[in-house]
Structure formats: C-alpha cells, structure tokens
Amino acid sequence: MCVMASPSTRAELITYCKRQLGEPVLQVNIDDEQVNNVIDDTFQFFQENCYNGMERAYLYHEISADDKTRFAAQTTTTAALSSEWKETTNFIPIPDHVVGITKVFGLVSNSIRSNLFGVEYQLFLNDLYAFGSLDILNYYMNKQYLETLDMVLNNGAFQQFRYTQRRDRLYLDLDKDFLKEGTNLLIECHRLIDPTDATEMNNDRFVKLYATALMKRQWGMNLIKYNNVQLPGGVTLNGREIYTDALAEIEKIESEVLSKYAIPPMDMIG
Questions:
Q1: 3-state secondary structure of 170
Q2: How many beta carbons lie within 10 A of that of residue 86, not counting itself?
C-alpha cells in the first residue's frame, strides 16, 4: 500500500518516519512499543509547547447533588507529632485534557448588569442609542469600571478558584451553602488538542520532524550495544553516530519551536 507524504493517522505517521530513516532500503531496528513511546512523546511536546497544540474552550457543567455532597465533606491529614489538619473537598472534577482555567462564570447573579435597572443597562439605554455622538472611549472606560465594581462587590465572574492540572480538580473557594444544585457553571479554559480527533496534527511539520528525530535517537541507542553492525552487502551501521546526529536534530527542532512557535504566557490558573 502506498502511504502519502502527508500522514493523517498515527500509523501513517509512523510509516512516514521510518521511510525518512531509510526503510524499506534499510531496516530500522526499533520495537513497536518504542515506536509508540516516540509518537506519544512527540505529541506531548507539541501540545505543551506549540501554540497549535492547544486551544481555548468553554466548558459547561451543572452543579449536581454529588458536587454538593463533596463540598460538605472534609479530609484529614496527620502531620508530625500527631497533629491533624482538616481540608474541605471543595472541588469539581475537570477533564484531563484541560491545562489551565482563566475564568469561572455563573456562580452569582450580577446586579450591575443582569437586570433592567442595572447600571450598565441604563448607561447603554441612555447613551448608546446616539452612537455617533458618544465617546466610545469614555463608554469603554465606564464599562471596565463597572466590571471592577462587580468583581469587588459581587465577585461577578471573578470567583476565587484554584486549578491543579495534575489532579484535574477545580477548587472553588466559597461557602458550601452558596453552591446551589442545578447552578450552571461555565469555565473558560485551554485544553490540549487530541490528535485522534484533529488528524491534521499528524501532518504538522514539527510533528513529523520531531517524531523522526526521536525515532532516530532510539534507533541509535539500540545499535550502540552492537556498534559497527555489519549488514548484508558490506554496509556498516554506526549506532553512536546515528545517536549523536539525532541529538543534534532534536536540539535544533526544540530550539526553533520554543523560540518561534511557543505558547505565549497566559493569565490562567493551571
């Protein structure tokens, strides 16, 4: 079967990398499990360091009875000298592909914006109809001021929260009685792109280069134990040289990704 130079699946990406290393002319001595480790490492590096590896998303969650029960519970940790510390389990489980959370919406009603007699609505009603005569800069500054008031007085969309990616938990630092069953929760977050869903990731330039270089490094590591392997026809494979070349290629690729295509610092918790 002919595999195109634009892989769209994991299997095609593996075949592409092996062709780049010399197959079928040469046999690339690397085990299938090692190949899968290489591809997993490639996607992990791409997702965590390249801006095309993650995306902004809005996830919806309805507070359930289980969430209420969890918020009311406590865990106890025993320290040295039998000292006990209690901690509330005030968290909501989050999908494991979420790497950071920027905002949490829906926990409070907004008295400044959400009703007919709110300040923002009245400002909009009285001034914005005459858009041509309105100083848009002044309106924008007033709107930001109202947002700040809402944040300080009502907590608005700026609830105190903590997020731990390695535990997939969104902690909400509020009174358990404040959390109502049926409340609609919306979070603004960044999540990793799944290569099985976004198949174009298999054809990304850096994914192909990095996967090939990692596979070459593993191939060299395998051959180092049998240095100067003699192949039929008198061809000799130098595992040390293959390994060293791969290290240089990996360093070059990582440097280019981190300097030109790295994810910019984000104001998020995670």
A1: strand
A2: 8
Whether residue 58 contacts residue 51, with contact meaning beta carbons closer than 8 Å, is answered with no
Q: Is 77 helix (H, G, I), strand (E, B) or coil?
A: strand
Segment 12-44, tens digit of pLDDT? 999 999 999 999 988 898 999 999 999 999 999
Greatest alpha-carbon span in the chain = 88
Tell me what the pLDDT averaged over the chain comes to: 82
Give me the pLDDT at residue 158, please: 46
In contact, 175 and 68? CB cutoff 8 Å: no
What stretches of 22-178 show up as alpha helix (H) in DSSP?
32-49, 65-72, 119-127, 136-153
> How far is 99 from 190, CA to CA, in rounded Å?
6
Give the 3-state DSSP-derived string for 101-121, with helices as H, strands as E and coil as C: EEEEECCCCCCCCCCCCCHHH
Q: CA 263, CA 50: separation in Å to the nearest integer?
A: 6
- Tens digit of each residue's pLDDT (9 = 90 or more) over 171-222: 988 777 778 888 888 899 999 999 999 999 999 999 999 999 999 999 999 9
Cα–Cα distance, 176 to 70 (Å, whole number): 9
